[in-house]
């Protein structure tokens, strides 16, 4: 934390470089209770949010607590420029005791932190270390297939017929990255819940029932 004393009762802004730290999206629901304002900048990130979060995120956006900015032109540093713009804009708008946290592994954003401090603000950049990234990936690879098996049983008459639509369905259900979708798909395949023939999906209900959630 910055050398200046930061009181949790003061304002706290979170600026997320989603291009650089896509796994941070998984923390968004909790972040909304911890920060007074959150800004997410991205250019072409494939990070997805669970459908169950849509209402709460919409409320946060309407209240001005959450800003999601897709940069008009994708580029290597486009999200960085967005972060810098909002850092400067919010510095002018918010009380002087507001603390700024930038989530990014890009050390170039240390310049934004330096400038915030130079103008008397409390600021820091927080990166996601390699071991944390590995942990996030391992958690995604260990996703439970039971909820999706329940989903397949509940909507037995409207199951994805092709591999591509199955993958889209898994992404929508879990709101995860490509790693999550691939993990769930491979588990369904290896445990005999599905078979793929010429890109068409065959469902084996006995296996699906065996791996469903039990109340």
Automatic annotation (TrEMBL):
UniProt domain PIN-like: residue ranges: 15-120
Pfam families assigned: PIN7
Name of the protein this chain belongs to: NYN domain-containing protein
Originating organism: Azomonas agilis
């Amino acid at each position: 934390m910055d050398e200046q004393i930061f009181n949790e009762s003061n304002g706290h802004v979170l600026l997320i470089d989603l291009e650089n730290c896509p796994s941070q999206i998984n923390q968004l629901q909790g972040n909304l209770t911890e920060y007074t304002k959150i800004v997410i900048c991205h250019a072409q990130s494939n990070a997805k949010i669970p459908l169950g979060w849509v209402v709460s995120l919409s409320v946060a956006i309407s209240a001005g607590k959450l800003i999601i900015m897709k940069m008009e032109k994708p580029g290597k540093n486009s999200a960085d420029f967005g972060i810098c713009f909002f850092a400067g804009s919010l510095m002018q708008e918010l009380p002087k005791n507001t603390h700024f946290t930038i989530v990014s592994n890009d050390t170039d954003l240390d310049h934004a932190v330096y400038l915030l401090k130079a103008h008397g603000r409390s600021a820091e950049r927080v990166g996601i270390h390699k071991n944390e990234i590995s942990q996030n990936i391992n958690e995604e690879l260990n996703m439970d297939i039971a909820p999706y098996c329940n989903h397949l049983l509940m909507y037995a008459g409207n199951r994805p017929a092709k591999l591509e639509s199955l993958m889209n369905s898994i992404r929508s259900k879990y709101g995860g990255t490509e790693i999550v979708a691939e993990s769930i798909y491979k588990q369904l395949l290896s445990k005999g819940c599905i078979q793929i023939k010429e890109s068409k999906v065959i469902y084996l209900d006995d296996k699906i029932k065996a791996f469903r959630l039990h109340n």
